[in-house]
Write a structure and sequence with these properties.
There is one protein chain. By secondary structure, this protein is mostly beta strands. It is 7% helix and 40% strand. It has helices at 2-12, 14-17, 39-42, 59-65; strands at 49-52, 71-80, 83-86, 91-101, 109-112, 120-123, 126-127, 131-134, 143-146, 154-157, 160-164, 167-169, 186-189, 192-196, 199-201, 204-205, 211-221, 224-226, 229-230, 237-247, 250-252, 255-256, 263-266, 271-273, 276-278, 281-284, 288-291, 301-303, 306-308, 311-315, 319-321, 328-330, 333-335, 341-342, 352-354. The longest helix has 11 residues, at 2-12. The relative contact order is 0.08. The model is unreliable at 1-26 and 32-37 (pLDDT under 50).
Length: 370
Amino acid sequence: MTNIHSATQCLLGALVLGCTSVPALAALPDPPWDGGWDPGGWGLIFPATLEVPSEYDTIQEAVDAAVNGDTVLIAAGEYFENVVVIEKAISIKGDGLVELWPDDDEAIIAVSSTPEDQWVRLEGLTFHSIYEITLPEELGGITFEMYGSETRGVTVGGGAVQISQCTFDGMGIAGADGDEEPGAAVAAAWGYVQLEQCRFDNCRATTAGAVYAALASVEMSYCVFENCQSDADGGAVKFEFVSGEIAACSFLSNAAYSEGGAIALNQSSPAITRCLFEDNTAAWGGAVYSEGSEGTASDPVVTDCQFHGLSAGEYGDLWYASSYSDPWWTGSVGCGGDDLIYGFTVNRWLNSLTEYCPVCPGDVNGDETI
C-alpha cells in the first residue's frame, strides 16, 4: 500500500513543483465492456465473478485473486478497507447498498497502471470518510467530525477508471502540516477518468472539495454535486491541465473560500454542456473561475447551461475569467445580480443574462413564459 500511495502522491505533487507544459494525451480508450466482450482480446480465460464475503473475506483478497475481465461482486453491508488495484482491468461492483469506509489514513480504493486500453470499473458503491464523534457528557457531550489527511474515496495514478452509479457522501480530506490535499472524493493524475451518474454530497477538502484532476483526461456526465466545500478554490471540482467534458451535471449549493464556488479551471478547457449551477458561492467566480497561461489558455466552451442564484464576495457572481481565459457561451442563461460576468464578454444574442431570477424555474429568461 505504501508504494502505490507514494507513487500517487508524486503524481499529484507534480503541479506543486511547477508544470509548464501539457503532455500529449492519447485518445480516451474505449472500455472493453462497451459493445460486448471479445474473448479474443482477453485470451482463453473466461471472466469470473468473485463474491465478497461469501467466497473471499475481504475486497482486497478478491482483487488480488482476480485477473483481467473478472468482477469482484460485493454483498450489501459496511466494509472498512483500503483497496489497491495495480495493473489489472477488473470490475468492482456493489450488490445492494455497499458502504465503504477507510481502515486507515489512505484512499479507500487506489488504482494505478491499468493495462493499455483497458479499464478498472467501479459501480454501485457508496463511499464515506467523515466520522461523527460525540464526547461523553462528563467531557462536554459535544459532537464533532473527524477525518484523516489522505482519506480520499478513489485515487487514480496513471490508470483508466470508470466510476458509475456511485455515491460519495461525507468525504473529507485535510492537509497535513499546512499542505493542500485536493479532491476528497476522487483525485486523478496522469490518467483517464469517466464519472457517470454519481452523487457527491457534503465533500470537503483544502482544495477541490469533491473531484480533482491534473494532467488527465476526464469525462463527467449526469453527476450531482451538492454542499461540497473547499478551503481554497474549486468548491466541487478543480481541473489543472485537463481535457474532457462536463455534461448534464448539477452543481447545487457548493462553496469555495477563494475561487470557483462550483468549478475552478487552471489551464484547462473542458466542454461544459447542459449543466445547472444553482446557489454556489465563492470570493471570485460564484459558479466558475478560469485561468490560463501564455502557453496554455483556459477557454472552455459552455453550451445550453443554466446559472441561478450565484454570488461572489468580490467579483463575478457567476463567472470570473482571469488571465489567458476567454470562455465561449452558446444558448446559456444566467441570472442573479448585476456583476455576473468578470473578465470576458458574453454574446447576448446567443445567450441570456438578467439581473433578477424568475420565481418559476421554468421561466428561464424571465419573460413570463415557460
